[in-house]
Backbone:
């Protein structure tokens, strides 16, 4: 996928979005803060989850964070810059409710429009 704003530096802050045939996701890394939020939903209908997290590691091309979702699940995430796109990995580490598990895993993201 191609960045929405060619020529803009590929910083790992701001809003990102991704979708495939079965799910859709939006993620925000607040500029200048260590807060992460994301929402994901199954298509056409199914589990919808909201999550919040805190950045635990930030480098020039990777951000790692811990998260807790609205089902009580806990996990670890990583967003990294890849040639022309962003890769997101969401890995549950403690599962309280299995309903949203298919929303996690690997995602290909682009920068969301402002």
Residues:
């Amino acid at each position: 996928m191609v960045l929405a704003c060619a020529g803009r530096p590929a910083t790992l802050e701001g809003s990102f979005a991704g979708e495939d045939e079965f799910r859709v996701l939006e993620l925000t890394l607040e500029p200048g803060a260590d807060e992460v939020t994301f929402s994901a939903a199954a298509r056409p209908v199914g589990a919808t989850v909201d999550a919040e997290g805190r950045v635990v590691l930030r480098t020039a091309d990777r951000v790692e964070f811990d998260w807790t979702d609205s089902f009580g699940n806990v996990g670890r995430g990583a967003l990294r810059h890849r040639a022309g796109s962003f890769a997101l990995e969401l890995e549950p580490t403690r599962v309280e409710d299995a309903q949203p598990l298919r929303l996690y895993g690997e995602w290909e993201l682009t920068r969301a429009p402002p």
